[in-house]
Design goal:
The chain is an alpha/beta fold and 228 residues long. It contains 7 helices and 9 strands. Strands 1, 2, 3, 7, 8 and 9 form a 6-stranded parallel beta sheet that branches. Strands 4-5-6 form a 3-stranded parallel beta sheet, covered by helices on one side. Helix 3 packs across helix 4.
Length: 228
């Protein structure tokens, strides 16, 4: 099977517009939130996070995953503080959405031994990183520390989508996870991708009968079920 999913970080107000465009093209995905930052506003960056009382409604029909309670850098935290952040984030997000959180995207793309050990012991289905070398479109047998395919702002995103679309399945599943932050529709990190460009990206990948459009959780669950 070919799986395509979006994995978006931080739970900001621009997610609402991003979701509107996703729905227009019949796409699905996962939103990685920080339970301790919900409703916060950053005075310098002007990033506004969606408040707690809107979370369930905004992300209905999509997956919510963990992203660290306060979007901390685990590298600079003790083992105890790391475990406390993860436990609190997973618990509070699970309570908010009404189902058990089973995925985690590492804040600042930093995994540590303490974080990995805790997440593995908490029966996470998958954990996601954004950067690193990996076989293209690989479907991991063990999706802990899975590396996303590319950002939706990547210069070669259209070429990668063309390659994914044209690739023929052999003996293994194929997986394309596109990650990012929805505020990148408005300003660059390092490149801006305005809504009209995002629609072009989505139009290229959408509506194909040989591709399963799903959340990250669904990709790893469905792939496991159909693997002999």
């Amino acid at each position: 099977m070919k799986f395509f999913s979006l994995s978006m970080d931080d739970g900001v107000e621009q997610d609402k517009k991003f979701i509107e465009i996703m729905k227009k093209f019949g796409l699905s995905g996962t939103f990685n939130l920080n339970a301790g930052c919900l409703g916060d506003s950053h005075k310098i960056t002007k990033i506004h996070r969606i408040p707690k009382d809107e979370i369930k409604q905004v992300y209905e029909g999509f997956e919510v995953a963990s992203h660290g309670y306060k979007h901390e850098m685990y590298r600079y935290m003790s083992k105890k503080k790391t475990e406390q952040s993860l436990a609190r984030d997973i618990k509070e997000l699970s309570d908010l959405v009404g189902y058990q959180i089973v995925g985690h995207a590492f804040p600042y793309d930093m995994s540590t031994t303490a974080a990995n050990d805790y997440l593995r012991g908490s029966n996470m289905l998958y954990t996601r990183k954004a950067l690193g070398k990996k076989p293209l479109f690989y479907y991991p047998a063990n999706p802990l520390n899975y590396i996303a395919t590319c950002s939706y702002t990547a210069q070669n995103v259209m070429e990668l989508l063309d390659l994914f679309i044209s690739s023929t399945l052999q003996d293994e599943h194929m997986l394309f996870v596109m990650w990012g932050h929805s505020w990148e529709m408005e300003r660059g990190f390092p490149r801006k991708c305005p809504p009209e460009q995002l629609e072009k990206i989505f139009a290229k990948i959408a509506g194909r009968s040989d591709i399963t459009y799903c959340t990250c959780k669904e990709a790893f669950e469905q792939g496991a079920r159909v693997t002999p």
